[in-house]
Amino acid sequence: MGPCNSGSPLLTPEVTHEANDERLSQGVLGTSSIVFMVMAASAPLAVVVALLPLAFAFGNGAGIPGTWLLATGSMLLFAIGYVRIIPHVKNAGAFYAYISASVGRTLGLGAAYVASLSYFALSCSTLAALAFFSEDFVQRTMGVRTPWELWAAVAIALVIYLANHRITLAATVLAIALMAEIAVVLVLGVAVILDRGLPAFELNDFALSTVLAPGLGIGLMYGFNSLIGLEGTAIYQEEARNRKRTIPRATYISVVVVGCFYLFTAWCLSTSVGSANVAEIAAADPGHFVTDRAAHHLGAIGTATFSLLVLTSGFAATLGLFNNATRYLYALARDGVLPRRFAKTHPRFGSPHVAGTLLGIMLIVVVGAGALAGLDPLLNISTSLVGLGSVGLMSLLAVTALVVPIFFAHRGIYGMATTVAPAIGGMAIAVATVLAVANYSALTGVDSPVINSLPWLLVLSALIGIVQGQWLRVNRPATYERIGASRVDEDVAPVQSTEVALERA
Predict the structure, then answer these.
(1) 22 contacts 344 by C-beta, under 8 angstroms
(2) What is the DSSP letter of 338?
(3) Diameter of the chain by CA atoms?
(4) Predicted TM-score of the model (pTM)
(5) Which pLDDT tens digit goes with each residue over 68-83?
(6) Which residues touch 187 (CB under 8 Å, ≥6 apart)?
């Protein structure tokens, strides 16, 4: 093992004791709470209803269950390296902190702006879709027309309240919503098994010839898109109990549970109509493919339950993504990159309420501007932002996975967990990201050149961060040294001892 570079502030960070009004709540989240937070942000039911039919229709059809298996396996390889770097860099900035520690603060700052924009864009996108489906649900069930702006306003008010309250309240709300949506999808899966019988489930759906069929690229794009957000476990490490065990455990559980959930659901939906027919049937009406399956196997009550829980799933995802964006803004402000006032935390709840309030106002501005412009919440606002956020986070997943081996190589540590696994996972995610950019209109669902040019905002955000990082390095070196630094005081041990433990593991 190579020598420990103890002079680097990212290896043995200077412990900075922030004022009490700049500290998040300490030790309040257990493994289950963090799992619920990140799984809810991935909106499992919304993915099943919206993305799976598109994957069947435009991807590799019967090979979709196997495609989700590939995506889940790649994310697990990413997670193996991801959790190994967590003990070294303890910061709510996650991607931002890890990239800073691996390849430099300047690039890390660029990544931070991309992550902030991506999480906020996905939060806005999910909120707009939630407002649309809320309006539609009320009209179909009660026969009353309501403005979608009303439901957006209600959702924004609830999101700001829960995000600025104690984090355990948000975790409880997300846990309830998540368990309900997972339960109804599993009930549908069990109904398919009972109706069709186990022999109807074809193992050939996982054969290489089936998975490698035309459309695999688009299938992988949707597969990885459904799994982004699971990396958010590290964002909550400052608020976790026994973070060295809680965060890795929550990361693995989230990836395995969500991946298996999608795989099982995709296989059940495919079997419901027959693997040979699934692509054609899904393409005929992708918007109602899943609810039609629910009506067929569960009846009218099942359809109504799906329609209602899509709303709770959308709200849970909006809140989870909003919390992630808030903590990035908070981390940047605490490091001195953004105005320090945004690092203030609530005196009672320990939440980053100033950052949360700012992002809440930004939500209002985006939705308000869309309403004044007469934009459709689903076809215009949601579709224009979902691709932006998805490509941004997929890019960061790939970069983070690929820099993990660099981080450990600088410390003379090589192995399956620290080098090989994250490198393979990162390359797989990078391929999916390239496919997502190449098929960007499939992600957004529109042909608008303006909307499909939005990924350039990610490039612009990264360049702004890089330029600011270079400026800080020259003009404010003290602030530059704080970029991505560790901020958890407990269990701060010399890096050498951590390296020995990792190597033995």
Answers:
(1) yes
(2) S
(3) 71
(4) 0.81
(5) 999 999 999 999 988 8
(6) 298, 302
The total number of residues shown for the chain amounts to: 505
Q: What is the CA radius of gyration of the chain?
A: 22
**Backbone dihedral region of 336: left (phi > 0), alpha (psi from -120 to 50 degrees) or beta?**
left
Q: Of 285, 279, 283, 305, give the one whose Cα is nearest residue 294.
A: 305
Handedness of CA 461, 462, 463, 467 (dihedral sign): positive
pLDDT in tens, 120-155: 999 998 899 889 889 988 988 888 899 999 999 999
- Could you tell me the domains of the chain? 20-504 (1.20.1740.10)
What's the CA gap between 187 and 175, in Å, rounded? 18
Cα gap 456→67, rounded to integer Å? 28
Q: What gap in Å lies between CA 312 and CA 318, rounded to an integer?
A: 10
Kindly state the tokens that stand for 387: 């691709």
CA gap 400, 396 in Å, rounded:
6
- Find the DSSP H helices in 335-382: 353-372
Phi, psi of 294, rounded to the nearest 5 degrees: -65, -40
**Residues forming beta bridges with residue 240, ordered by sequence position:** 29
> Which residue spans within 178-282 are E strands per DSSP?
none
Q: Which amino acid is at 382?
A: S
The two three-digit tokens of residue 5, written as one number: 């570079």
Please enumerate in sequence order all residues whose Cβ is within 8 A of that of 425, keeping only pairs 6 or more positions apart, or say none: 74, 75, 76, 77, 78, 79, 80, 81, 401
Nearest alpha carbon to residue 235 among 79, 92, 95, 119: 92
Most confident of 283-287, 414-418, 492-496: 414-418
Distance CA(213)–CA(468), nearest Å, equals 45
Q: Which residues make Cβ contacts (< 8 Å) with residue 251, sequence separation at least 6? A: 79, 82, 83, 230, 231, 233, 234
Structure tokens, 273: 């109509």
